[in-house]
Write a structure and sequence with these properties.
The chain is an alpha/beta fold. It has 2 domains: 212 residues, NAD(P)-binding Rossmann-like Domain (Rossmann fold, 3-Layer(aba) Sandwich), CATH 3.40.50; 32 residues, no CATH class. It contains 8 helices and 7 strands; from the N terminus they run βαβαβαβαβαβαααβ. Strands 3-2-1-4-5-6-7 form a 7-stranded parallel beta sheet, sandwiched between helices. Helix 1 crosses helix 8, helix 3 packs parallel to helix 4 and helix 4 runs parallel beside helix 5. The chain binds NADP nicotinamide-adenine-dinucleotide phosphate (NAP) and D-gluconic acid. D-gluconic acid binds next to loops.
Length: 266
């Protein structure tokens, strides 16, 4: 048996939300490397144009669309358009997400709702848009990009942790409700990854020293480094391919060991 064939995505169409850059871009690159046709979306025309050039530079013929994943009508139209352009969505990666780092007692309900809307409700909306077709074809893969904050809390990220904790349970519920249609829904839980989203946590100090949070993460990570978006590619290909057909409702943490480690003694 050629076991690598189980990881092939040839003939499959993948939608990766929020894949203009960062983790989504790397995951889309990995899925393309395994043979998938790539569709991605974001809200900003500028980000879209830059992303199209970046995908082209990588030799990836990605199709990009402007779509706000919190808007159900936009998402339904996005999925219909992708089906016309590339074919039915076989693989959905719910990656689009934001974070607002505000002490809870200072956070407005509006800010809280915006984070939950993008990081959790949007995954419900987009999954609901692709599930009927997957049910009809009795085949589909949904991968939700969870977080360390699906398991742990910390100061200033109440909305994000609530959303990512909810996303872990949405993942398990989709797995439970639709597993009988040969649909697998799993999560990837990245550790601390070097992207624009975490750039404020890695900014050099005025004296050129590391940001205190940067040093904190290094001390908490057995790998003694931040993750790179490319570190997530293998897990994404695995969870998008037939190699994971009997994996369902699982959150695969790609965190350099943070969740297993009490942290380096000062
Ligand atoms: P990022 O660099 O901030 O990229 C976020 C992407 O999502 C951008 O392409 C953004 O494009 C898009 N986006 C945001 N809101 C959207 C909306 N309403 N509709 C459509 N697209 C939207 O973030 P990242 O670090 O790559 O993180 C990607 C995912 O991984 C997020 O879900 C994040 O929570 C999760 N995660 C990140 C880390 C980390 O350490 N970086 C760790 C664990 C989990 P536009 O602004 O143009 O829409
Ligand atoms: C933060 C970070 C984290 C990461 C990621 C960790 O402020 O703590 O942004 O939330 O984004 O989710 O897995």
């Amino acid at each position: 048996m050629d076991i690598l064939k189980k990881f092939s995505l040839e003939g499959k169409t993948a939608l990766v939300t929020g894949a203009a850059y960062g983790i989504g871009f790397a995951i889309a690159e990995g899925l393309a490397g395994a043979g998938a046709k790539i569709a991605f979306n974001c809200r900003s025309e500028e980000h879209l144009n830059k992303a199209m050039a970046a995908y082209e530079e990588k030799g990836i013929d990605a199709k990009g669309y402007i779509c706000d994943v919190t808007q159900e009508e936009e998402v339904i139209n996005l999925v219909r358009t992708i089906e016309k352009d590339l074919g039915p969505v076989d693989i959905l990666v719910n990656n689009a997400g934001i974070i607002k780092r505000i002490p809870m007692v200072e956070m407005s309900a509006e800010d809280f709702r915006q984070v939950v809307d993008i990081d959790l409700t949007a995954a419900f909306i987009t999954s609901k848009a692709v599930l009927p077709g997957m049910m009809e074809r009795r085949s589909g893969k949904i991968i939700n990009i969870c977080s360390m904050m699906s398991e742990l809390g910390r100061e200033t990220v109440s909305a994000y942790a609530a959303a990512k904790g909810g996303l872990k349970m949405l993942t398990r519920n989709i797995a439970s409700e639709y597993g009988s249609y040969n649909i697998q829904c799993n999560g990837i839980g990245p550790g601390y990854i070097a992207t624009p989203q975490t750039a404020p946590l890695r900014e050099k100090q005025a004296d050129g020293s590391r940001h205190p949070f940067d040093s904190f993460i290094i001390a908490k990570t057995p790998a003694e480094r931040w993750g790179e978006p490319e570190d997530l590619m293998g897990a994404a290909v695995f969870l998008a391919s037939e190699a994971s057909d009997f994996v369902n409702g699982h959150i695969l943490y790609i965190d350099g060991g943070i969740l297993a480690y009490i942290g380096k003694q000062p």
